[in-house]
Design a protein that fits this description.
By secondary structure, this protein is α+β, with helices and mostly antiparallel strands. It has 2 domains: 75 residues, Beta-grasp domain (Ubiquitin-like (UB roll), Roll), CATH 3.10.20; 70 residues, Orthogonal Bundle (DNA polymerase, domain 1). Helices cover 31% and strands 15% of the residues. It contains 5 helices and 5 strands, in the order E-E-H-E-E-E-H-H-H-H. The chain has a 5-stranded mixed sheet with strand order 2-1-5-3-4, covered by helices on one side. Helix 3 crosses helix 4. The termini are far apart. The C terminus is likely disordered.
């Protein structure tokens, strides 16, 4: 390698169930890698981990992509909103956010949906206080969070029922 050329590292990550390999600068943050990979739901917000716009699930744990180096994700499994559901087959959490009117401008929605997923995985029947705690760190400038909390309650109830509205098992 010529002097002055930036060193790169190879990082293997499973993103939304698909194994991928990236060659990145060791200082590259996961937010940039994921955006460059076409994952539009991972949004740039504050770059300080305060807003939740760049939230991802790393091995099922909610994390901020702006605070992680891509190299820290080597061998890990990442889930973004793109990995939960699609427009034609939304995940119950996504459907609940739409039905409750909790989407407004939509900028914070992917982070809110992933925070909800992490919360409901660990606490399937959260109280309103637990919902607020689970969403803490995900900022929304458009709402008073009432509809977002309603959406989390609705998604929790649907997921607990174990059946989607078409009658199929999940």
């Amino acid at each position: 390698m010529p002097d002055g050329a930036p060193a790169t590292i190879e990082v293997d990550i499973i993103i939304n169930g698909k194994a991928q390999t990236f060659r990145v600068d060791p200082a590259e943050v996961a937010l940039d890698t994921l955006r460059d990979a076409g994952l539009a739901s991972v949004k740039r917000g504050c770059d300080e981990g305060d807003c939740g716009s760049c939230s991802i699930l790393v091995d099922g744990q909610l994390m901020r992509a702006c605070l992680l180096y891509t190299g820290q994700l080597h061998g890990r499994e990442i889930t973004t909103v793109e990995g939960l559901g699609t427009a034609r087959q939304p995940h119950p959490i996504q459907r609940a956010f739409v039905e409750a009117g909790a989407v407004q401008c939509g900028y914070c929605t992917p982070g809110m949906v992933l925070a909800t997923s992490a919360l409901l995985d660990s606490c399937p029947s959260p109280t309103d206080e637990q919902i607020r705690q689970g969403l803490d760190g995900n900022l929304c400038r458009c709402t008073g969070y009432v509809k977002i909390v309603d959406a989390v309650r609705q998604a929790a109830a649907e997921l607990r029922s174990g059946r989607d509205r078409s009658g199929g098992d999940r």
